[in-house]
Amino acid sequence: MANERRIKVLVCKPGLDGHDRGAKVVARGLRDSGMEVIYTGLHQTPKDIVNTIIQEDPDAVLLSILSGAHNALCPKIMEELEKNNIDDVLVAVGGIIPEEDKEFLRKHGLRGFYGPGTEIKTIVEFVKNNLKR
Length: 133
Known about the structure:
α1 (21-32) links the parallel β1 (8-12) and β2 (36-39). The chain is globular and about 40 Å long. The protein is of the alpha/beta class. It has helices at 21-32, 46-56, 70-83, 99-107, 120-130; strands at 8-12, 36-39, 60-65, 90-95, 112-114. 35% of the residues are buried. It has a single domain, classed as Rossmann fold (3-Layer(aba) Sandwich).
């Protein structure tokens, strides 16, 4: 349908991690699949990310964390979303997420995990099949 709204995805790099190649590859792959993509750049705080979510109203937020700080940063982002009564956005995290950390992150509301080597089509399908809106 020509009038159908494109899925809007925010790709974020929270924390001090400076490795953004994967996030840029994912952002481009999502864009090439027809989604509207906003990449926020490096060194975003949880509050920065939530402020961008408030301003841009995305359908999904994909976090990219390679620093190992996912157990500290992801819950803070989810708490900021809750403080702002935002519960209609899909949130997933990419990077090196140990299997033993995934349940902790799921309890905080993260819905998906994608690690190095994940095919873009897998991430695209995840977003399409798991939107909350």
